[in-house]
Amino acid sequence: MTEKDFPVLNKIYDIGRQAEIIGDLAKDTIDKEGEHAKIHCSNVVEWMKDLAEQAQKAIDLKIEASE
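Above: the chain sequence. Below: its structure as tokens.
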């Protein structure tokens, strides 16, 4: 891995972290607002979890490729 890779990997990490935060906020809304919020927020939780996982996979692939 080179120094040129760091900014890209850092941005990918930021995307994954933001997805986790959004997912957590949606989950908190479900917990606080109950069934009505569950209808609107449950998909957001899953989408953000998937986005965070994909960001982590991209980082892992880049690290493996540089070894």
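DSSP finds two helices and no strands in the chain.
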